[in-house]
Amino acid sequence: MKDDIKLKLAVLPSTPGVYQYFDKEGTIIYVGKAINLKKRVSSYFTKTHDDGKTRVLVSKIVDIKHIVVATETDALLLENNLIKKYKPKYNVLLKDDKTYPWICIKKERFPRIFVTRKMIRDGSEYFGPYTSVKTAYALLDLIKELYQIRSCMFDLSHENINTGKFKVCLDYHIKKCKGPCEGLQTESAYNTQITAIRNIIKGNFKQSLVAFHQMMHRFAENMEFEEAQKIKEKMDLLSNYQAKSTIVNPTINNVDVFSILSDETAGYVNFFKISNGSIIQSHTIEMKKKLDESDKELLELAIVELRERFNSISPEILVPFKVNVGENIKVTVPKQGDKLRVVELSIRNAKYYRQEQFKQVQIIDPERHTKRIMAQMKLDLRLSAEPKHIECFDNSNIQGTHPVAACVVFRDGKPSKKDYRHFNIKTVEGPDDFASMEEAVYRRYKRLLDEDQPLPQLILIDGGKGQLSSALKSLDLLGLRNKIAIIGIAKRLEELFFPDDPIPLYLDKKSETLKILQQLRNEAHRFGITHHRNRRSNTALNSELETIPGIGKQSVESLLQYFKSVKRIKSATVEQLSSVLGNARAKKLHNFYHKNE
């Protein structure tokens, strides 16, 4: 496997998406979908394939690209669009050019609603496509259960209804339709139902649920409990229905979509090309910053570059904020609906591309990756220096028994386990976390000062304002206040507390800075709990030693001083024990642990 392919596989996300394989000429030779991109794409290169066509395909792959989507359904739809657009050599093309079904709201008086595979551009509304015809019909059945809409194909014009041309059918008598053909339902009342149905198809259930809830209460107040129960059943149907997610919309036609994410060194711009309601192209680029350019400046440059590169003449672009790209292009900043969802999908792809670039740098150039992380932490935590050396403290006790504290050390964002330290709390009685934290911090930095060892750039305290204040007391006693940055992290909302600042800092839950702080906190907790358990276990075993006839407290201390642990005492021979206790007591101790042998 080529090195560049290995690198791309290493940084693929474990999310739903579509992958594209390219040959040496840059031609797409295969398009596929996956629930987990990393697992699916990696399987082509790690498994032995019995199929000869697959082996030939893998041998011709020189580049891999992917598009991240929200769900498996989205992946299936996007795969279908790209296969039809590019007709890759190794894809099994649909022989009958089968298309996915849509739900149509027909443009007519008293609109009909039905499932169709043909899209006729006569002003009717089409929703979908649906990857399964069963899903489309299931939604249509739900709509018919909730609302009384006509199924006939009559031309319900004013003239035809007024002249009594039509008569109600069976649907009216079984309460599936309210008889608009005979003028028994007004057009405005029917269109109110259509508005509600349109919202349900789009996944907006709130208004329908509110209306049904009001109807149910009216029936109940009028003692019409059977009708109220029917409405309740409709509400349950609606609540249990899982809305589809759409990746395409036939009303979005011949549009380019652009979005940008940036950090201190570069901007990452994603581009989608949409034609006839389908995403047919995706590309992401990295733009290095030279003069601290703004996102607006970078995006404007990227739009011109990408439209020229892909020969795009789309009259409209969708972007997350206003840009100036000339008078001949319509710039739209969507605030809701399907256009906004497409822009959000573009931002998600830019985000994943940025993460993959970081992962590649981490593999190829770990030193550069570390420098970037340190610079980001310095910026996020408002520090005066990069936190290359961080120490984190945590307490552990059960109702005040065997109180201990742990100190873990990270260097360049990674654990330095040889520098970990634990403390048996000596001056505190009872469960007092604040006093325990004060003692541990004081002892740690008193020793570093006495031994003239380097101090950390950042101290992280596991706890809120109380634990942070206790740690600050120790720094004050040692004259280290304002010489070492110190913050507290509270578990519940991941709040970061700073000295003399009553307002906590909240970092993005996905930020790398917060992840490192969480890793520090979790590692300190793990290290402290392990030591605490060992102390409790040793205390119990020491008590067990003192119950052996002829073995007193002084003997236990001598044994532990010599053998260092109870485990070694248990496995020692009579001769080894005799050197500490003498023959008689050594035999008693050995027999106690080996009486079954």
From TrEMBL:
UniProt cross-references to Gene3D superfamilies, sorted A to Z: 5' to 3' exonuclease, C-terminal subdomain (1.10.150.20), GIY-YIG endonuclease (3.40.1440.10), UvrC, RNAse H endonuclease domain (3.30.420.340)
Subcellular location: Cytoplasm
Residue ranges constituting the UvrC family homology region profile domain according to the UniProt record: 261-475
Record-annotated GIY-YIG domain positions: 14-92
Keywords (A to Z) from UniProt: Cytoplasm, DNA damage, DNA excision, DNA repair, Excision nuclease, SOS response
InterPro entries referenced in this protein's UniProt entry, alphabetically: GIY-YIG_endonuc (IPR000305), GIY-YIG_endonuc_sf (IPR035901), GIY-YIG_UvrC_Cho (IPR047296), RuvA_2-like (IPR010994), UVR_dom_sf (IPR036876), UvrABC_protein_C (IPR050066), UvrC (IPR004791), UvrC_RNase_H_dom (IPR001162)
Pfam families: GIY-YIG, HHH_5, UvrC_RNaseH, UvrC_RNaseH_dom
Signal peptide: none
Binding partners and assembly: Interacts with UvrB in an incision complex.
Protein family: Belongs to the UvrC family.
Its biological purpose: The UvrABC repair system catalyzes the recognition and processing of DNA lesions. UvrC both incises the 5' and 3' sides of the lesion. The N-terminal half is responsible for the 3' incision and the C-terminal half is responsible for the 5' incision.
Protein name, entry field: UvrABC system protein C
